Amino acid sequence: MKAFTLVSFLMLALFLACKAEDISELEKSKTVTLNNSGVLESFQRELTRVIDKVSPSVVTIFARQEVEFNPFEEFDLPFRFPIEPFRRERRSLGSGVIVKYEKGKVYILTNNHVVEDAKSITVRFDKHTEKEARIVGTDPKTDIAVLEVNAKGLKEISKKIAKLGDSDKVRVGQIAIAIGNPYGLERTVTVGVVSALKRSIGITQYESYIQTDAAINPGNSGGPLINIYGEVIGINTAIVASGQGLGFAIPINLARWVMEQILKHGRVIRGWLGVVIQEITPNISEAIGVKEGILVAQVVEGSPAHKAGLKEGDIIIAINEKKLDSVRDLQFTVMKTKPGTEVTLTIIREGKKKKLRVKIGELPEKISSRKPSYEGENLGLTVRDMTPQEKARLGVEGVLVTAVVPGSPADHSGLRPGDIIIRVNNRKINNVREFNRALDRLREAGKTKALLLVRRGESNLYLVLSIK
Fold first, then answer.
1. Which of 164, 309, 355, 437 is the most buried (most CB within 10 A)?
2. Each residue's pLDDT tens digit, 388-410
3. 391 with 350, same domain?
4. Domain for residue 306, yes or no?
5. What backbone phi and psi angles, to 5 degrees, belong to 328?
6. Is residue 390 part of a domain?
7. Predicted local confidence at residue 378, as pLDDT
8. What are the two backbone dihedrals, phi and then psi, of residue 350, each rounded to the nearest 5 degrees?
9. Cβ atoms within 10 A of the Cβ of 162, count?
10. Per-residue pLDDT for 34 more than 80?
11. How far apart are CA 305 and CA 253, in angstroms?
12. Residues 281, 253 share a domain
């Protein structure tokens, strides 16, 4: 499949080059053949030149970790041996790319998972040169790490700095070249295309991956994805083990921003709004009559959003007049906003547009992981009033879901026993009577879906319940 992809591209390149020549001459001669291989040779020379230029900036990274090992844990024994776990050394292998040289120090960009929990790190620059490295900083939220190496003894290191491109200009179908050390095979080159952009695969908190079919394997992590100009457009990070031609790279603009934060502050300082947000699905859109923006499912108490008056059920459609198309747009815009900066949010509340001024805060080091949730009535649903003790303990009022019938509308909505329904179509619910009344109003108005705000654990989530 890889050979077919590359050959197909080369054939297309030849065709386009021929079309660019004097077409009338082509019509006369009717002789366009592969015997004249000038275009192919030119492409091959250029590809080789680009790879020769970038390869010296790619390094091999060996990270030594100590892990605990108990040889008896793999056996299902009815008792425990009174023995301390053994500690043994494990070495992980990855790649990196030289991105900066300053004041006798070399800086290398790689993945956090390549060096995570490392006791020591060795960087191999070529087959004759290895140096110990220091971690300047890591960012698990994007899987980026920055290493520092003393440049003493490194020959012509200033010529080995990779040129960073602009990942915002990357387009699907462009050629992508991955360089790395898969399975320890140093400076392996694979060629493909950019398959997709802004991919999210659920392995880090901030994701907007470049997807490529250029082969990426274990050991490629941390190495560069480059374009035909020899510019780094991404840092290779992940593969889908069960698939072929599914590799993912962190866009270089995001990696560079994280690196600059680490080099300046020793850590990444992110802007913080303090909301749980979700996309407006077709079901939710039908229920609320809005087809744009991002839905606010929860506002963290005491957060910048809470202080500015943002409410659950608001729909954020723009920030500083810049339209937002997805949760990712809002997430990354806020992340890169300097804490203390005032921004204007354009929102829709109860069908009307409104503007709010919000002073962006700094994302706390630790914030409880809040995942949105779901809920339901006699549509395969049993609910009851909450007791005063439950309200006091949970800090919320609503109706408690005690049972959900499998295969029912409530089950299909995503409701679970233990969920607390707080609002129906943004109308606050305090008891079962109010819950039933709210559903009846919707039916009387000819509505077939109810938008439920549900509390599950510590998080809120909007769900759509069919009430036909």
1. 164
2. 777 877 888 899 888 787 778 88
3. no
4. yes
5. -60, -40
6. yes
7. 56
8. 55, 40
9. 24
10. no
11. 27
12. no
- Which tokens in the block code for residue 128? 């004759």
Is there a contact between 58 and 224 (Cβ–Cβ < 8 Å)?
A: yes
Residue spans of beta strands (DSSP E) within 208-338: 209-212, 224-226, 231-239, 247-251, 271-272, 275-279, 294-299, 315-319, 322-323
Catalytic residue among 139, 143, 314, 419: 143
* CB within 8 Å of 52: residues ≥ 6 apart: none
| One domain for residues 446 and 385 | yes
- The number of CA neighbours under 13 Å toward the Cβ of 183 is 4
* Mean pLDDT of the 83-103 span: 80
List the structure tokens of 69.
Answer: 């090992």
Q: Check whether residue 310 and residue 279 sit in a common domain.
A: yes
In a domain, 125, yes or no: no
d(CA 323, CA 13): 37
Q: Tell whether the model's pLDDT for residue 155 goes beyond 60.
A: yes
For residues 453-465, average pLDDT: 90
d(CA 21, CA 339): 55
Whether residues 338 and 406 share a domain: the answer is no
- Contact in structure between 460 and 278 (CB atoms under 8 Å): no
> What is the domain-level CATH number for residue 435?
2.30.42.10
Instruction: Judge whether 221 counts as a catalytic residue.
Output: yes
346 and 388, same domain (yes or no) = no
| Mean pLDDT along residues 64-76 | 60
Q: Per the residue annotation, which of 57, 92, 95, 221 is the catalytic one?
A: 221
User: How many domains does the structure of the chain reveal?
Assistant: 3
The parent domain of residue 318 ranges over 271-362
Q: Strand pairing partners for 323?
A: 318
Whether 267 has a pLDDT exceeding 60, the answer reads yes
- pTM to 2 decimals? 0.72
pLDDT range class, residue 370, cuts 50, 70, 90 = very low
Element (H, E) at 146: strand 144-150
Q: Which of 57, 92, 95, 113 is catalytic?
A: 113
Active site residue 113: yes
The residue to which tokens 């001459």 are assigned: 25
What CATH number does residue 199 fall under?
2.40.10.10
Judgement on whether residues 254 and 290 belong to the same structural domain of the protein:
no
Residue 424 lies in a domain: yes
Instruction: Note whether 249 and 294 are same-domain residues.
Output: no
